[in-house]
Every structure is written in C-alpha cells, then in structure tokens.
Design a protein that fits this description.
The protein has about 100 residues and is an alpha+beta fold. It has helices at about 15-30, 85-90, and strands at about 5, 40-45, 55-65, 70-75.
Length: about 100
Amino acid sequence: MAIYLGNPFSDKVSDDQGDRFEIEIREKIRRGLPDTYFFQHNVVVDNRQYDRDRPTAREIDFAVAGPNGLFLIEAKSVNPRPRGFQRARSAPCRRAQ
C-alpha cells in the first residue's frame, strides 16, 4: 500500500459530493500503489511569488511521489446531468477505476 503522509492543515471530511469523491480516490491510491509510493491530499500552493497583485492559494488534490516520478492529480466528480455553462464546457471523462 502507498504511504499516506496525511495533511495537518486539511484532512477535511464533509458530506459534499466532491469531498466524498476525493476520499474515495485517496483510498484507491493508498490501496492500489505499492509502498514505494508516498502521497499527500489537498496540497496548498501559494502563488504570491508569481501574482503579487492577486495572491491566492491554489490546491492540488493529490501529490503522488514514487520511483518513476512525481504526479499531481486534480480529481473531479462529474455530475451526470451538467447544466448551464458547464454543459458547453464539459468533456467526456472516465471515472478512475
């Protein structure tokens, strides 16, 4: 199993669909990768160095490090019935196995 490093700032648990999906993905990463991989959930990146006029924290859903590289993952739960502007922008997605 991959080693979960935790997150002292945000190990959030809520009833939100997106949060539940991220927890599901976190468990799939943990169980699906060998112990040569380490990962962290909800990594916050500060962009003040690049955008001083509008400093904003950015969040990477998962950072996974292993023998073959570093992977940054943005997890999205897809609503089966997109509405409004989302419909025009939505692209076919496949749920992680």
